[in-house]
Amino acid sequence: MAARSQLLKGILDACVMAIVEEKAVYGYELSQQLQKVGLPDISEGTIYPVLLRLQKNGFIIGEMRPSASGPNRKYYYLTDAGKEELERISSEWMLIAGPVSQLLQRGENG
């Protein structure tokens, strides 16, 4: 599990930005979306520091909105700089993921 956690830590910013790019979300909803795509190990305690870092770097912005079911929620939006960063990370990921997958699958099949 430690290896998975370390690998995910390296790409989590991009995963968060990819979800935020689709629609504005608040922290708990983001956690649910990550679980829905198959990343159940991501807790809210992990997500909030990522959101703060992305916001500090200018990749996302947060806006408080009223909630029908409780206190106001902070919704996050991707900025233009965030869209550029997501594109950059996605390109880099594709350059790495393909060759690594081929190497690892070769080991399984050989």
Textual characterization of the structure:
With 110 residues, this protein is an alpha+beta fold. The chain contains 4 helices and 3 strands; from the N terminus they run H-E-H-H-E-E-H. It is 67% helix and 17% strand. The protein has a 3-stranded antiparallel β-sheet with strand order 1-3-2. The two termini are 25 Å apart. It has a single domain, classed as Orthogonal Bundle (Arc Repressor Mutant, subunit A), CATH 1.10.10. Helix 1 (2-22) crosses helix 4 and helix 2 (27-36) packs across helix 3 (44-56). The model has no long low-confidence stretch (mean pLDDT 90). It has helices at residues 2-22, 27-36, 44-56, 80-109; strands at 25-26, 60-67, 70-78. The protein is globular and about 55 Å long. InterPro entries: Metal_resp_DNA-bind_regulator (IPR052509), Tscrpt_reg_PadR_N (IPR005149), WH-like_DNA-bd_sf (IPR036388), WH_DNA-bd_sf (IPR036390). Pfam families: PadR. This is PadR family transcriptional regulator. Residues 16-88 form the Transcription regulator PadR N-terminal domain.
Mean pLDDT: 90
Beta strand count: 3
Residue share in β-strands? 15-25%
Q: Rough shape?
A: globular
CATH topology: Arc Repressor Mutant, subunit A
Which CATH class applies here?
Answer: Mainly Alpha
Radius of gyration based on Cα positions: 16 Å
Q: What is the number of independent domains?
A: 1
| Helicity, as a percent range | 55-70%
Order of helices and strands: HEHHEEH
CATH superfamily: Winged helix-like DNA-binding domain superfamily/Winged helix DNA-binding domain
Biggest sheet, spatial arrangement of strands: 1-3-2
Biggest sheet record: 3 strands, antiparallel
Secondary structure class reads alpha+beta
CATH architecture: Orthogonal Bundle
Model regions low in confidence, pLDDT < 50 over at least 5 residues: none
Compute the number of helices: 4
Q: What is the end-to-end distance? A: 25 Å
